[in-house]
Amino acid sequence: MKLFKPLSFVLIILVMVSCNKKETKIAVFQPNDQNGKDTAISESNPSANYSTLDRIHMVSLSSNDSIKNDVRSLLRFGFATLKEGISIDSAFVHLYAIDPGHFGTNNSFVLIPVNKVWINDEVNWNNQPEVDTSQTITVEAPTDTNQDYKIDVTNYVKAVHQNNQPNYGFMIKLEDEKNAYKGLRFHSSNSKEVSKHPKLEVFYTE
User: Fold this and answer.
1) Where in this chain does the record put each Carbohydrate-binding module family domain (predicted)?
2) What pTM was estimated for this model as a whole?
3) Pick from 203, 202, 199, 197: nearest CA to 53
4) pLDDT tens by residue, 118-147
5) What residues does each domain of the chain span?
C-alpha cells in the first residue's frame, strides 16, 4: 500500500494536466489579388504605383546611392477577425521567392511597422508612409537564390490584437541600401501562383 498510493497520486496529476491542456489553433490570412495589400515603391520612378505587379521586392543597384534606384515594398495583413480574449502564442509572415530570385551578397532585410494609413493603389516613393524604427525586425540574408522566409512577427500581432497599436502593416527594405548590387524578390498577392502569396499564420489558444 505504501508504494501504491504515491504512484496513484502521480497518475491522477498527469491526467488532470492532460485534461486541462488547451488546444493550439491556427488562423491563416493569405489575401488574393482582390483583397491583398502589398506593393513595391521605386526611387527611380517616385510617382509610380506598382500595386498590380506579381512581386514585391527590395533592391539596391548603385554604390553609395550614386543613382536613385532603390526599391522597397509595403505589406499589410488584415486580421481583425481574430476573436477577443484569445491568447496568441506566435505569429509568422511567410514570403515566397519568385524567379529569377534573390541576388547579391550582404542582402539582409528589415520589416518596419508603418505609422500611417497608406492606399494600396495610390502609394509610391514620394508619398510613402512614415515608419516606427523602434520595432524593426531584422531578417538574415538568404543563403539560396530561391530561399523562402518564415518571419516571426509575434510581438506586432499581439500588440495590434490587444489594441496597443494600429495595424498599418510593414515597410520591407534592404538593411543596407547604400551598397550595390543586391536584392530580394518575392511573390505578391497578384501572383498567379496562389499558394505562394504572402501569408500570415497566427497560432493561438482560446
Assistant:
1) 37-202
2) 0.88
3) 197
4) 999 999 999 999 999 999 999 999 999 999
5) 24-205
